Every structure is written in C-alpha cells, then in structure tokens.
Amino acid sequence: MTLPKLHIAVLLGGWSNEREVSLSSGEGIAKALESKGHTVTRIDLTREVAQHLAETAPDVVFNALHGTPGEDGTVQGMMDLMGLTYTHSGLATSVIAIDKELTKLALVPHGIPMPDGQIVDTESLFIRDPLPRPYVLKPVNEGSSVGVAIVTEKGNYGNPIGRETEGPWQQFPRLLAEPFIRGRELTTAVIGDKALMVTELKPKSGFYDFDAKYTDGMTDHVCPADVPAEIADACMELSLRAHRLLGCLGCSRSDFRWDDEQGVEGLFLLEVNTQPGMTPLSLVPEQARHAGLDYPELVEAIIAKALADAAAREATS
Fold first, then answer.
1. Quick one: three-class SS letters along the chain?
2. Which of 17, 18, 184, 241 is catalytic?
3. Where are the domains of the chain?
4. What digits encode the pLDDT tens for the residues 33-78?
C-alpha cells in the first residue's frame, strides 16, 4: 500500500513506568514519518489528550505509548469513541494481552504452551512461598519486564520474602507467580500477518529485565537466533497463532523462554506485546531491518496496516 502524504499524530510519553521508553519510541517514529514527507504532531499523553487529538484532527494516530493507560485498552476505547483511526490493536485485544492471567486464559486452551502460574496476594509472600523455589514473580499487567523478580534458594530476598526487601511486592498488591524456566530468551515479531524471525537475547548480567532491555551494551542480540530449525519454526508458528487468537492488529511481539535441554517441549510463550518498543535498541525494528525493511519503511507499513484495517471495518459495518 503506497501512502499519500498524511497528517499523523504520534501519541507518546504518558505517566506509566515506561514513559521514557515511549518518548524514545515516539520521537523515532515521528522523525521517520517526517523523513517520508508526512506532517507529524507529537502529543504527550495528559488528561487532556482527547481535546488535543480533537484539535489536531489527524488522518491517523500512531500509538507509541507503552504500559497503562496507552496499552491496556483505555486510550484505544477513547479513540474508538472519537472515531479515530489508530495503529496497533484495539480495545478488547489490548485489555486481554496486557493482563498476563487473561492472556493465559485466551491462549492455553488453544494449545499455546505457557508456564503454569497463579495470582497471589502480595501479603502472602511474607508468610510463605507460593511455589517451590526457584520461581518468578511479576506484575499482572505491566510490560517491559517491569517489576520482575526471580526468587531463588540463595537469593537476597529472604525466606520468606522480607517485607522491607526491595522488589515488586512493594509496588503491587497482586502478583503472578510462575515456575522459573531455565534456558534461553527468544522473541519473534509479527507484522501484519507474517512472523519475521527469532532473536535470542543474551543479557551480560542477571536476566533480561527493564535495564537490560533499554540500556545500551547490557544485552547482546543474536538475530537471527542460532537455534535449531524446529525451534525457530515453533517460535514463528506460535507467535502468529497467538497474534491471531488475541486479535492483534498491526504489529506484535511474542517473548519465549526455551529450556534447550528439553527440545521443542521446553519452549514456552511468556507474553504477547501488542505495542512493542520502537527505540534504537528495540527488537521489532531490528528484525524488520534483517528482513529488508528499514525503520521509516517499517513505520509506514504499520500506518498502512492501520488504514487498511479501518477501511475493512468500515466496509463491513
């Protein structure tokens, strides 16, 4: 789809834990669109965002927000009410995909392998472990590995976890507990209706947490990943199936943990990101580049998909 010259609003920033990431993504997107001759209005998310969007009256909105409320369906619902065309997934998909418990309920019955898990009240962690150690604790509805902790026998969180010890239990009243899966971090992007490839992430220390994702030099990306063909094929097939089952639009990224001692039986989907990062260190632009799509072309492709999806909805309404 060849794009005409458009007026595009780029939503960025906001007040989530991922504000700085969103600002970086949004600025990169805005500059890429301007390099293609489009008119761009940058809108930092505030409580007056609806007024700003109405005054801007864009042809399409590029949603470059991460975390809540830009990724959880809140902003999507507002834009639906305003009749705006916007990139990435809609309200229902966003509500489900950002919630790790709802994602499991949507995908596991369809044969998507995900780690077993249970929601725990934070207060209970100060009394007993919810699972045998090692296990992982993570917020139910945050992205970018925000607030993830790996609880081990010899870790420094205490046994039971200390109430005053720094960790996600100090920020969130409820957490998802999952068994720790040893092995390797893999990820696959889906653009439109095509899975691109697999990247392996090798943090230089610790695990692939928020700092490892967004600090230059802290993680090596092996793209394409050096994994057996059956693992690469499984990652791409599961990513595309999850994208479709959740009803994702535009672009998504699926993150996996692979126990390389267990073959394909050791591959587990951890989460699906409906609005993946678009920073200089982000994984989707990197995979797109290896697939022959430079950054401005990738951004235009996401815009084109949003316009095509909107036209298809209008034609059937």
1. CCCCCCEEEEEECCCCCCHHHHHHHHHHHHHHHHHCCCEEEEEECCCCHHHHHHHHCCCEEEECCCCCCCCCCHHHHHHHHHCCCECCCCHHHHHHHHCHHHHHHHHHHHCCCCCCCEEEEHHHHHCCCCCCCCEEEEECCCCCCCCCEEECCCCCCCCCCCCCCCCHHHCCCEEEEEECCCCEEEEEEEECCEEEEEEEEEECCCCCCHHHHHCCCCEEEECCCCCCHHHHHHHHHHHHHHHHHHCCCCEEEEEEEECCCCHHHHEEEEEEECCCCCCCCCHHHHHHHHCCCCHHHHHHHHHHHHHHHHHHHHHHC
2. 18
3. 97-114+182-290, 118-179
4. 999 999 999 999 999 999 999 999 999 999 999 989 999 999 999 9
